[in-house]
């Protein structure tokens, strides 16, 4: 597997503090009987605060399911997810929604923005949903960092794919969430735009102290992270710190071999 | 291809559900109309067939003849071979006095012969047929209205207005006799009937036994003899004409409902095709031809139309039977009947349902054929989204229809002589402008949505703002959805405005031009004598409670050129004080001896104008008259009016036809009424109507008609609401991923539901506002076109209520789609491809 992305410059390891979010003996099964699929088997993993962690694994390994459970989008079958010091299993739908609104940010592969809103309105959406006013200085900083100053009045249909994804990143950052979950954020982008977005995500960790958990299948994308966790058949099999594209590829080959 | 289509239908059955409902309701209305009229006919036929069963031979006067059958003929019929019994049917005026001692109804009650025994044609509801000269039977409506029960004593006037007292022996259903049901009926034993009504002839002679040939031979030529069956057939045919008229009226409303259904169907198919672009393209990729795709869509429409129509027939049966029950419980004198589902009903219903559905699907089906196979590989974009740019055709249609429609409406309202033709012009104008609005609506959605959405956008928080944006994002779709509601609300507002104008006009005319408190006149249809008794005016003038008592007299007269007209006059002191006609030309000052004033309609028909001279034939020979003025028609006074002194000189002492009384200021309404009752007690045949009562009656009548129209239009509005629900649920399907994203970043379920409710609210209010604007504008134009003196009134309360109700209904329509949207799993929706 080769990647079009350029390798990142030498990555310094982050100092792992208390985990921002962790999964404790989490299992999840879809379907019943013969049709049952074990998406997650007894997963125990913690994600450090102010670190950029990538989750990798072959198709069907359960990496997206793990991300959805960590983010409070999906429920677990057994075990628990703890975000900060909140056990997500104890929350009803409304509280979960409020938690997502206030403490979590998202960047998805696609369909990331509301077509009826301008870039600025999209960025401010989570804050407005929460009824919070934007910290203007922070908003300006985020906008400048993602380089969207002159695009704020445009609607998504008037932006390129990379620009759209940067708007999505800005939206995730602007509410200063405890964790940002990114699901294949570069999946729909060309290599240059993808590199831009990844560099931006990494700098938000380094410079702004953000915590990011990202699912990807691209070794180059994963190499931007501080740490890579590998999943296969719903279980954590190995992990890697300070990854490079080559070391990630090696691990993947070992997993599939 | 057939299999693919059917599989698609099954897969999309939920999405097509509202389409089916729209067709079902529209077709149900049509089928219901047929079922109702068929049931009415059957009830009438059955009722009559039952009674005609008993008649062996009926003798009738020749067709088209007004003359009755001389009484002497009855003996001849009785003597005919085989006849064991024969009775003559009598029909004439027999005014029943109500509990207040005055005649009942505007027209005298009908006096009928009600024979006992086998020849009793009517159904006895209670009691028995009248026996002997001191018993009568009453129809149920009159007995209920006047609170006369079996055993009560009632007073009936005979042909010379002498009172006779009778005991009520029973209540008889005269439902098959439409005149008797309208005017009320008093049934006597046959001999008494002749004496009371003062008629010496029969309208019909019925026999038990005998044959048509034998009876015909006995009565001689010049009369028709029929068997009982033929008689039944003839009478039900006469009644069928009435039900046909009702049916035609109802079908007009059914047409409106069908039109709205067609809009809903068209919209649904357009959205479904757009959403299935990839599916259609895949079909094309694997080798389906354009023709096959086109046929597939039409087949789908046909199946949906067929299912909807079949359900519609079932709904129609329910509606028809329900309507008959409703009419009967509201006092309509219709016989009960079994449900009739004629083959014609089913055929028409299915044909209409199928044709409308398939026609509505043709444009979407053509759109489906234009999908390129390569679209299967492309990323799907939101169908129908983006800014709407009207094409040349749309602009041309808007300008053409809008211009022609406005022109017709303006010409009809202000540029044409008032009346029916002007109203037709306004109606045509309205229809054309509506077409223009249909063409223009996608353009209007943007600004209208912004205006309507201003409030929810400002106060509804983020969900409110998103909802307003969503309502505006697919202009075509929103336009068609809202237009469907515009139809019903528009017609409703139009009727409301016309009704309000009618009510206001009635009130003002009475108040301004002729402010009297009571009008006294004889009952209509008393052929011989329409004038009032001589002492009445004096009796009223003797009462101190009245400040003025006026008499109106009239007489038919011939003008110099041979034209016939009715000449009338009013008590001289009334002019300028109480009676203030609105003059088109000339004035009251010129109205002296040797002159006349005319209402504009009569003036036009006689070819006279202010200053014209003519002569009228009087008892002293032709007398010259000069026209002193022409006044507006529609007031209390009409025709060719002479000064009182001239009238008396020309025609001698003529009894008054109307007497008007004005209560003195300071005398209370009750005291005035009591004085009036006291003064008229000796004259039971006069009808007293107070201005307040007649205003009230007119208002009630207008309200009733408006309510019936409203009820009939209600279905069209309900269908439009299903359209809103439909569009919304299809949009929800389309925006699954978007909703999931919103939920992921923190929109609560409740906020999601609120967002969809607001979207429905905005769409409904947009449609309603458009309808209200059109309805009010054309209602005012129609009112203006109706008569010269029309008053323009806008029932603001009602109009606001229409918009508010439409908004509320829109929110209700959003309940199901929004529940479904809120239930959707976020993770699945995000993964959904």
TrEMBL record, chain A:
It comes from Actinomadura rayongensis. Pfam families: ABC_tran (PF00005). The keyword Ion transport does not apply. GO terms for molecular function: ATP binding; ATP hydrolysis activity; transmembrane transporter activity. One of its GO terms (cellular component) is plasma membrane. InterPro entries: AAA+_ATPase, ABC_transporter-like_ATP-bd, ABC_transpr_LolD-like, MacB-like_ATP-bd, P-loop_NTPase. PROSITE patterns: ABC_TRANSPORTER_2 (PS50893). SMART domains: AAA (SM00382). Keywords: ATP-binding, Nucleotide-binding, Transport. This is ATP-binding cassette domain-containing protein. Residues 21-257 form the ABC transporter domain.
TrEMBL record, chain B:
It is found in: Cell membrane. Residues 19-190, 478-678 form the MacB-like periplasmic core domain. It holds the Pfam family MacB_PCD. Keywords: Cell membrane, Membrane, Transmembrane, Transmembrane helix. The keyword Cell membrane applies. PANTHER family: ABC TRANSPORTER PERMEASE YTRF (PTHR30572:SF4), MEMBRANE COMPONENT OF TRANSPORTER-RELATED (PTHR30572). This is FtsX-like permease family protein. It comes from Actinomadura rayongensis. The lineage of its organism: Bacteria, Bacillati, Actinomycetota, Actinomycetes, Streptosporangiales.
